[in-house]
Amino acid sequence: MKQPLIKVENLKKFYDQRRGKFWEQASYIKAVNGISFTLYEGESFGLVGESGSGKSTTGQLLVQLIQQTEGEIYFKGEDVSSFSAKQLKAWRKEVQIVFQDPFSSLNPKKTVQWTLDEPLALHKLGDKATRYKRIVQTLHDVGLDESYLSRYPHELSGGQRQRIAIAAAIILKPQFIVIDEGVSALDVSVQAQILNLLKDLQHQYQLTYLFISHDLHVVQYFCDRIAVMYSGEIVEIGETEKIIQSQQHPYSKSLFSIVNH
Ligand SMILES: Nc1ncnc2c1ncn2[C@@H]1O[C@H](COP(=O)(O)OP(=O)(O)OP(=O)(O)O)[C@@H](O)[C@H]1O
């Protein structure tokens, strides 16, 4: 039996959009509006849905880049919002996020070595020599070698940049990674290489993924289970193959009609 890693209960994120003379009138964008689900250790869980349905907001909530308006996130049974500052810092090592465009997540003025050393230094993980060893090992894990250490993001291809972003995410040996449109900006052949790399890393490090994508073919290939989001809510959830074969909700039906034809 797979163990639950993350449990989300009635999670909500509202953005206040009151402005100027309308300040008196409450008006909220309900980006995420009461979602509940469980992620199990070692699974790839896909989040699909149209643009603006709340996928990225959900991903950012799960790693607490943003805080929820309401609801709970439990990590291995512990309520994340009850963590002390010290517990929160330790937890931040366990959860990472990889974005679509590594140009925005990689500092253009910093070398690969700096990028990979930063999380280790921040968490005070070993002396310089130990950290260097870990950096080189992690580069190998993502299919690159030492020759990349002195390079800057603009000197790398899109696929190499995404490998570095993945290396930065796995270097702290996390248990959970959100991949937000992580291969969407890449050519199809490079996409396949990165997806295979993510699968290899998942087995090597027993990673759990939340995989956000608008590409249903990619999701079908990559994910064990999926949830369909619509207007801030989860309208369907289940094993990938089952959902692809027969959807219950009208929105999912229209969404999946393109993969089934
Ligand atoms: N910081 C913010 N302030 C105000 N509204 C926001 C903010 N972030 C997201 N939203 C709104 O919340 C809703 C959900 O956005 P979100 O980015 O989570 O959707 P998404 O499904 O990931 O879409 P996409 O695929 O286009 O990224 C949208 O209406 C968006 O405009």
From TrEMBL:
| Superkingdom classification of source | Bacteria
* TM segment ranges: none
GO biological process: any one?
transmembrane transport
UniProt keywords, alphabetically: ATP-binding, Nucleotide-binding, Transport
Q: Which residues form the ABC transporter domain?
A: 6-256
**Molecular function terms, GO-annotated:** ATP binding; ATP hydrolysis activity
Q: Mind telling me which InterPro entries this protein's record contains? A: AAA+_ATPase, ABC_transp_ATP-bind, ABC_transporter-like_ATP-bd, ABC_transporter-like_CS, P-loop_NTPase
Question: Which family does the UniProt entry place this protein in?
Answer: Belongs to the ABC transporter superfamily.
Q: Indicate what this protein is called per its UniProt record.
A: Peptide/nickel transport system ATP-binding protein/oligopeptide transport system ATP-binding protein
User: What is the organism field in this record?
Assistant: Virgibacillus chiguensis
